[in-house]
Design brief:
Elements lengths: L1 E3 L1 H10 L3 H8 L3 H8 L6 H11 L8 E3 L1 H4 L1
Antiparallel strand pairs: 1-2
InterPro entries: Cro/C1-type_HTH, Lambda_DNA-bd_dom_sf
GO molecular function, one term: DNA binding
Organism: Candidatus Erysipelatoclostridium merdavium
């Protein structure tokens, strides 16, 4: 099962926030933003910072994709 952060990036677009602007607001690194862009794993601490900054729940920023859907 993989994680997809498309919901997070859509939320940023909907709120008119640029990626690097958000990284500064949330206190996360550019490398972490790059990992999110590539749908790679990030720590729960990072996900918590994102949710606190955007005042949202974790299911508002990510979804799990089963291996079956990818094929």
């Amino acid at each position: 099962m993989k994680v997809c952060y498309n919901k997070f990036f859509k939320l940023l677009i909907d709120r008119g926030i640029r990626k690097m602007e958000f990284a500064k607001m949330a206190g996360i690194s550019q490398n972490t933003m790059a990992r999110l862009s590539r749908n790679q794993n990030v720590s729960l601490d990072v996900l918590g910072k994102i949710c606190c900054t955007l005042n949202c729940k974790i299911d508002d920023i990510l979804e799990f994709i089963s291996e079956d859907k990818e094929k």
